[in-house]
UniProtKB/TrEMBL annotation:
This is P-II family nitrogen regulator. Keywords: Nucleotide-binding, Phosphoprotein. The keyword Phosphoprotein applies. Pfam families: P-II. PANTHER family: NITROGEN REGULATORY PROTEIN GLNK, NITROGEN REGULATORY PROTEIN P-II. It comes from the Bacteria. The gene is glnK. Belongs to the P(II) protein family. The keyword Methyltransferase does not apply. It comes from Rhodanobacter hydrolyticus. InterPro entries: N-reg_PII, N-reg_PII-like_a/b, N-reg_PII/ATP_PRibTrfase_C, N-reg_PII_CS, N-reg_PII_urydylation_site.
Length: 112
């Protein structure tokens, strides 16, 4: 089992959610976050004053998936989140040692 964490642009959330549903992902966790990478923020003008926005709004998606689903999930996120411009985001994949469904006590693959 793998934990897939994707940081994407906020306006791409619906596209990514639909793409994940199409490849069989049954649940995701979504968090509104702020951050920066190579983009390094940007400058904005407000009431005639210029100021730097260091942290840009992003969406963090988390999904636990079976090993055999991983390639399809990664492809779905990449294809649906890509704009071709800087700041499209990143995907992180890590191993899950154990998953437990609290309600039923099911373990691992059955808990997904």
């Amino acid at each position: 089992m793998k934990l897939v964490v994707a940081i994407i642009k906020p306006f791409k959330l619906d596209d990514v959610r639909e793409a994940l549903a199409e490849v069989g992902v049954q649940g995701i966790t979504v968090t509104e976050v702020k951050g920066f990478g190579r983009q390094k923020g940007h400058t904005e003008l407000y009431r005639g004053a210029e100021y730097v926005v260091d942290f840009l709004p992003k969406i963090k998606l988390e999904a636990a998936v079976a090993d055999e689903q991983l390639d399809r999930v990664l492809e779905a996120i990449q294809n649906s989140a890509r704009t071709g411009k800087i700041g499209d985001g990143k995907i992180f994949v890590s191993s899950l040692e154990q998953v437990i469904r609290i309600r039923t006590g099911e373990l691992d693959q059955d808990a997904l």
